[in-house]
Amino acid sequence: MSEKQTEILDFMDEQEKELAEPEMINAVWLRKKALGFERLINKNAEMRGKFEDEPHKFVFPHPLHV
Q1: CA–CA dist 54, 45 (Å, integer)
Q2: E strands present in the chain
Q3: Which range is least confidently modeled, 23-27, 30-34, 61-65?
Q4: Is the dihedral of CA 34, 35, 38, 44 positive or negative?
Q5: 6-34 b/e with 16+ CB inside 10 Å = b?
Q6: Do 58 and 51 touch, CB atoms closer than 8 A?
Q7: Sign of CA dihedral 58, 59, 64, 66
Q8: SS3 (DSSP) at 19
C-alpha cells in the first residue's frame, strides 16, 4: 500500500471515530461552530474578491471541518 493510501485510510479512520463519539450540543458548542462557519464565509468572500476571475482559487474542500 502506498504512503498516500495509508494516509487516506488513517484520515477515514479518524473521521469514523469522530462520528462515533457523541457530541455534546450546548451553547459553547453552538458558538464554536457558528464562529467557525462565520470565519469560512468571510474567507470565502475575501477570496472571491481577490480572485474574481479565477474561481478555482477560492473554491476549496468541504468547509465544515473546522
Answers
A1: 13
A2: none
A3: 61-65
A4: negative
A5: eeeeeeeeeeeeeeeeeeeeeeeeeeeee
A6: yes
A7: negative
A8: helix
CA angle 9, 63, 7 (to 5 degrees): 15
32-51 pLDDT per residue, tens: 989 999 998 888 888 888 88
**DSSP conformation class of 45:** H
Single-letter amino acid, residue 9 = L
Residue 36 in contact with residue 66, Cβ under 8 Å? yes
Amino acid code (one letter) for 63: P
Tallying the residues shown for the chain, one arrives at 66
The answer to whether residues 29 and 23 touch, using CB atoms and an 8 Å cutoff, is yes
Cβ-proximal residues to 55 (8 Å cutoff; 6+ apart), any chain: 48
